């Protein structure tokens, strides 16, 4: 089950569980659409994988399986890794 992390790892923007702005990679690294489209150019800076829209968990299921409250922020910045 996805953690549904609460923020963008790049700019720390809040990304609530129902956000249509959240993007994730296969490791659940989480970024906002602005950072993904701008500085990250669609590539995860952690694993070099692609970033896609995060699914939205229905409210009834969110009550049963809540989103994570642990914030993750890249202290060294969020520029993509060199290929």
Write the layout of secondary structure elements.
Blueprint: E1 22-24, E2 30-32, H1 33-37, E3 52-53, H2 59-64
Antiparallel strand pairs: 1-2, 1-3
Pfam families: DUF1272
Protein name: DUF1272 domain-containing protein
InterPro entries: DUF1272
What does this structure look like?
There is one protein chain. The protein is mostly loops. It has one domain: Herpes Virus-1, CATH 3.30.40. The chain contains two helices and three strands; from the N terminus they run ββαβα. It has helices at 33-37, 59-64, and strands spanning 22-24, 30-32, 52-53. A three-stranded antiparallel beta sheet has the order 2-1-3. A hairpin with a 5-residue loop joins strand 1 and strand 2. The mean pLDDT is 93.
